[in-house]
Structure formats: structure tokens, C-alpha cells
Amino acid sequence: MEAQRVKEDDDAIRSALASLKTATGIPVTMYATVLPDNRLQISQWIGLRTPALQNLVIDSGVGVGGRVLSTRRPVGVSDYTRANVISHENDAIIQDEGLHSIVAVPVIVNREVRGVLYVGVHSPVRLGDKVIEEVTMTARTLEQDLAVNAAARRNEGVRSGTNKQGRLMNGAEWEQIRSTHSKLRMLANRIEQDDIRAELEELCDQMVAPVRVKQTTKLSARELDVLSCVALGHTNLEAAEEMGIGAETVKSYLRSVMRKLGAHTRYEAVNAARRIGALP
């Protein structure tokens, strides 16, 4: 079981690093795992030029990653060796690798920091807010992947234990859950009684809850309703008819959602909402 856990989580981390490099074009992406003694160890990397940072162990509070671990907040520096927001015990190692600017974000699962996700460049380039947002979104996606892996392993443990009826859902069953969630939101939208509508919306939230991560982007109930329609394959006109609003209003909600989630299409918005746990 432990070997399975390591392989599944390593695969998720490797995919996150590759996705982050593709999305940002930044040459160096790294992941540091939290060790049992509350230190970090850089366990996976892409784009490092030297072995200086490979498998490096970092104390809590030290450098960028150690500060992220101790504060549980993202940290970015544009000139590592001159940055006054971090300590400088690892300056020589950073200089050996030649990194100049670094952004690091915590990966938190079940309220515990599981690791730190990094990006870095070897040239004096400032990594702006857009990069921090992209690293943060990738970290949130990785958090959900790790949480789903853990839930699947728990489910598998139940299945192999005393409860022989426990099992994992297949793809078709999971799609049925998604469809039901979207239809429930549409039904809630047509209910005039506030208390009944609130109960239906709570049921929708409970369907997402098993894999929900903390949302860094807050979507309104109406924005979620529009996304639920899109998830069912509705056009803007069909969504407008379903929700009892104008097509231009639907477009306005979609534009707001795509701006918040950094999506370029309606379907990218649905996928992004699923990554942050707003949709199943």
C-alpha cells in the first residue's frame, strides 16, 4: 500500500511540474516533500542545470521554501541573494545552480502542508502576479489530486477489509454524479421558497465536498448555475431559458467566471471549476 501511495502521488506531482512548465514557459519547476521531522526535501524537479538543489533538505523557515513551510503562504523573490523577506543560509547553493528569481507555493491537503511547489529562472527576470496565480492554481489542482488519491486508497482499503461492498466508482458513474449535480443546481434555481432552495444548494455542496479544496477564487451562486448549465452542454440561449434570465446576462456571468478562473473558453472554465472543487 505504501509503494502504491508513493507511485500515485509521485505521478501526480510529476504531472503538475510538467503542466506548470508548459503553462508558464518557466524553465525550472520543483517539488519539495515535507519530511516527518518537518523539514523539506526537494524530491522532483525539471530544468535544473546542476545537482546543487537535487534532493536538498531545507529546514523550516530557511530560504523561500522554508518560509513557505513555516507561514503556509506563497513567497516570491525577484533577486534571491538580496531578498530581505527570507533567510540566506542556502545562498551558495542557489548561486551554484544560478537561480535568480523564485516563486514557491504550499501544497496543503487536509489542512496539513504536504509539500512546496516551486518555479524559478536563471536570469534576472521578475516573476509577476500572473506567474504566482498560475503556480497557486497548479498547487490547488495538485492538492485535489493528492486528496483524491488518498480517498481512493481509503476506499480500496474498505473494499479489501470487512466491508466487501465498498468499491470505487467507474467513469460512467462519476459522470452521472456530475450530471446530477448540474441538474440539481438547475432545479434549485426554479424553486421560489428560500428554505427549500437553500437545502438543494446544500445538497449540491455535499456532492462536491469529498474532494473539495479551499477555493482561492470565489464564485457566486449564479456563476455556478451558469457553469452547471455549460457542464451539461447547454448553449447560452438554453442556459438563459433554463435560468429564466437573458442570454446577454448569461454571457456576462461567463465572462466573469472565465476572468476569475483564468480560462479562455467556457469548457476551460468548467474544468478549472472542477479543479478547485466548485463542481464535481
From TrEMBL:
<protein>
    <submittedName>
        <fullName>LuxR family transcriptional regulator</fullName>
    </submittedName>
</protein>
<dbReference type="GO" id="GO:0003677">
    <property type="term" value="F:DNA binding"/>
</dbReference>
<keyword id="KW-0805">Transcription regulation</keyword>
<dbReference type="Pfam" id="PF00196">
    <property type="entry name" value="GerE"/>
</dbReference>
<dbReference type="Pfam" id="PF01590">
    <property type="entry name" value="GAF"/>
</dbReference>
<dbReference type="InterPro" id="IPR000792">
    <property type="entry name" value="Tscrpt_reg_LuxR_C"/>
</dbReference>
<dbReference type="InterPro" id="IPR016032">
    <property type="entry name" value="Sig_transdc_resp-reg_C-effctor"/>
</dbReference>
<dbReference type="GO" id="GO:0006355">
    <property type="term" value="P:regulation of DNA-templated transcription"/>
</dbReference>
<keyword id="KW-0238">DNA-binding</keyword>
<dbReference type="InterPro" id="IPR049651">
    <property type="entry name" value="HTH-type_RamA-like"/>
</dbReference>
<dbReference type="InterPro" id="IPR029016">
    <property type="entry name" value="GAF-like_dom_sf"/>
</dbReference>
<dbReference type="InterPro" id="IPR003018">
    <property type="entry name" value="GAF"/>
</dbReference>
<feature type="domain" description="HTH luxR-type">
    <location>
        <begin position="212"/>
        <end position="277"/>
    </location>
</feature>
<dbReference type="InterPro" id="IPR036388">
    <property type="entry name" value="WH-like_DNA-bd_sf"/>
</dbReference>
<keyword id="KW-0804">Transcription</keyword>
